[in-house]
Automatic annotation (TrEMBL):
SUPFAM superfamilies: PUA domain-like (SSF88697)
One Pfam assignment: ASCH
Classification via InterPro entries: ASCH_domain (IPR007374), DUF984 (IPR009326), PUA-like_sf (IPR015947)
Domain ASCH, residue spans: 17-134
Protein name per the record: Uncharacterized protein YhfF
UniProt xrefs under Gene3D superfamilies: Sulfate adenylyltransferase
Amino acid sequence: MPSLQQIIDANPEAETFRFGDSKALCDRILALVRAGTKTATCEAARHYGPGGDAWPEVGRRDVALEWDGRPAVMIETVAVETRRWSEMDADLVAAQGEFRDLAQWQQEYRAYFERNGGWSEDMKIMCERFRVVEDYAGGRR
């Protein structure tokens, strides 16, 4: 398995990130990504821009990390958009692969956003669809 530095050297445009805000959540989400069940994700738009993460860009490849910082998978952004909380729909919820329905998504994401800077009914959310390019535990896709 290549080191994170080797991956970044070969992909200088790549951002690195972790799914979730705990080891347990990160592990659960990475399992869904690796299984092909999760092909979309969301984050509060406030986490991007000056002083934050770079906004995802269609075609850019980024590296999702294991909780301990080891490279897990490389993903490629295939679509990105901004929505308000109230604009989430069942199609994007299903693509996230984690939730039974929109109601469960709202419950779990509200708690996540409240733990990570706050939640509001009109908050802006970055919605990204992606594909796995390489799984560093299991090889190329």
